[in-house]
Amino acid sequence: MGRQPCCEKVGVKKGPWTPEEDIILVSYIQEHGPGNWRAIPTKTGLLRCSKSCRLRWTNYLRPGIKRGNFTEDEEKMIIHLQALLGNRWAAIASYLPQRTDNDIKNYWNTHLKKKLQGNEGYSRDGLSSSSAAAAAYQISRGQWEMKLQTDIHMAKKALSDAISPAKSSGSVEFEPFNGHTSYAKQSGYASSTENIAKLLKGWMRSPLKMADSADFSVEGIDPVKEEKNNEETAEGFQSVLGFESLDSSISDISESMSPEASLLQDESKPNLNAQTELSLLEEWLFDEGKDYKLCDLALDENVNYF
DNA sequence: AAAAGAGACAACCGCTTTAGA
DNA sequence: GTCTAAAGCGGTTGTCTCTTT
Q1: Which nucleotide is nearest to A191 (CA to C1')?
Q2: Contact criterion met (CB below 8 Å) for A136 and A296
Q3: pLDDT digits over A250-261, tens only?
C-alpha cells in the first residue's frame, strides 16, 4: 500500500491560483492563523489540496516576502551559500530572511547558474564536485582569497542587516510593484501582496460571508477603477492584514503591525535567533577572525563539504 | 503576421522528516 | 516504540510571455 494522498485527487483544482482563491486563503488565515492546512479546503470551499494551500501561503501570500529583483549582495550571498551548502535551498533561504527557498531556487536555476558559467571569477560549473575548493584553483589562491574576503564582507553586511534587531523578525519589505517580474506586467496578476490588496479592495466592496462559504465568489476587478482607487487599496489591505501601507519602509511596517499581522509575520520565517546551533557558516559570517580559516578550509582540496 | 524557440516563474510531485497520539 | 498525519524540502514540469526567424 502506498502512501495516502494528501487530498482527494478528484475535484481538486490545479494550476495557477486566481486572485479570488488568494483572497479566500488570506482571509481565512487572517482569521484563524496559519496551520491546520487540511481543514482549509473544506472550511473555505477552495478546490485546492491542503498542500497547495500551504505552498501558496508559504511562497507567495504570507507577509514579509520580498519578490522580484535580487540585489547584488543577495546574489553573492546565494552564490557563496550554494557553494558551501549545495542545493539546500531552505537552508540558504534562512540566511535571506525575505526570500523563499522556491524563489532562490528558481533564481539560481534561471539566472545565477548561467551567470556563473559566463563569469570565470565566480565559475564553479564544469567541476566534477560542486565544491568551492575546486573553484579556488581556477584562479590563483591570492586572487581567490582577496575576492572571497570582499564577498565575505558583503555577505556579512547583508546578513547583519537582515538579522539586526532593529529590522529583523518583524521586518517586512514590500517591493513596489514596478520592481516585479515580467510575469507581473504580462499577466496582470503576479500574486504580489499588492495585487492581492487591489483585489481585496474590490472584495471589501462586495460584502461576502467568508466563513463556511463554499460558493464564495468575488466580483471582477476593473483595472481602470483599480488604478483610480489605489490609495483605498492600501486601506483595504490594512483592514484585512493590519498593515499600514504596502510599500512602507521596513520600520514603518513593523511599527504599525497589528497583533494579528505580527503573529503572521513571526511565523513567516524561521527565527534566526532560535537557530541555536551555530554552524560553521554562521561562525564564518559572524566571526571576523575566522575568515581566513574558512578560506583555508575552502582551499583545502581534501575537504569536501558536500 | 505567424510560428518556433527560449526564458522565467509558479506550481506540483514525491520523498523525507517531524510531531503527536 | 510504533503509527499516522502534517509539514518540509528539492527536483521537475507546465504555462505564459517575449524574442527571434
Answers
A1: B10
A2: no
A3: 333 333 333 334
